[in-house]
Amino acid sequence: MPLWTLRGLGQGKATTGWPKDPAAHGQQGTIGMPSVGADRCTEDCHRCADACPTQAITLDTRGHLETLDYGRCVNCQLCVETCPAGTLQPGSEWAFGVRDRVDLQWSLDPDPRPPEVRLASHIERSFRGSLHVRHVDAGSCNGCESELQALNNPFYNLHRLGIFFTASPRAADLLLVTGTVTTGMHEPLLAAWEAMPEPKRVLACGTCAVSGGVCGGTETSGHGLEGVLPVDVWLPGCPPNPAAIIEALLMLLERKPQRIHGGRVHER
After folding, report:
1. Pick from 61, 115, 70: which is nearest to 88 by CA?
2. Which end of the chain has a smaller Cβ tally under 10 Å, C or N?
């Protein structure tokens, strides 16, 4: 009997009970996206906006925090470190998957309407049993790919949820895209999308795929998937951890609700 088999028998089951067990996600101690505290900004302070490498922060005419775009945030924590008033604080929320891009944008004066309690789109019955994913690296640094690899390890064991990666777009239900969508990958990405049968969905995985991230906006790198493909779920993060990716996939399948609305967490 191989040594790894004996070791596995001795250690027992390694797979997490998450998401049924809410505390077993394996991300204890993970630093989440910056959160906005109750304190107001100091007058004419531009430190957070000046420090942000992706221009995710905009200020009003007084120099106060006006908007924070989590779709551009790479969670570098520079804004938190430079904020003298405590307006921006370390957060604990690391899963920011949303169906509408606008829900990643925090503003000082949010829409007073409560988030609509609904599932954004009906998922076809064929998606209920299993989901086959075709991953396309459209110009990533391989940070997201490292997290995607962890989905198939014994701890997360993505297959237990009925979600599988496939090598062929012709057998895929979902196109999972990482990277900034560079000029060289634009046509191959569209070719993979066209090869997929209907019904088909798109997941923008990582801040680069959502908005271009740190490397986006040059002559050869793109600005992410916006305007390129019809995105069903936007998942920022640099990179998003495996549990955040799984939560986004389950949200796509309508097996978990969306919790981020207007850049704020709304638990149900």
Report:
1. 70
2. N
List residues bridging with 58 in a β-sheet: 67
- Look up the pTM and report it: 0.90
Q: Which amino acid is it at 99? A: R
d(CA 240, CA 255): 19
Question: Are 51 and 28 a contacting pair, CB within 8 Å?
Answer: no
**pLDDT by residue, tens only, the chain of 268 residues:** 566 666 666 767 789 888 989 899 999 988 999 999 877 788 888 999 999 999 999 998 888 899 999 999 999 999 999 999 889 999 999 999 999 999 999 998 766 554 554 444 556 555 666 899 999 999 999 999 999 999 999 999 999 999 999 999 999 999 999 999 999 999 999 999 999 999 999 999 999 999 999 988 777 888 999 999 999 999 999 999 999 999 999 999 989 999 999 999 886 5
Matching residue, tokens 């305007």: 227
Rounded Cα gap, residues 19 and 21, in angstroms: 5
Domains of the chain, earliest start first: 32-94 (3.30.70.3270), 126-265 (3.40.50.12280)
Output the 3-class SS for the chain. CCHHHHHHHHHCCCCCCCCCCCCCCCCCCCCEEEEECCCCCCCCCCHHHHHCCCCCEEECCCCCEEEEECCCCCCCCHHHHHCCCCCEEEECCCCCCECCHHHHEEECCCCCCCCCCCCCCCCCCHHHHCEEEEEEECCCCCHHHHHHHHCCCCCCCHHHHCEEECCCHHHCCEEEEECCCCHHHHHHHHHHHHHCCCCCEEEEECHHHHHCCCCCCCCCCCCCCCCCCCCCEEECCCCCCHHHHHHHHHHHCCCCCCCEECCEECCC
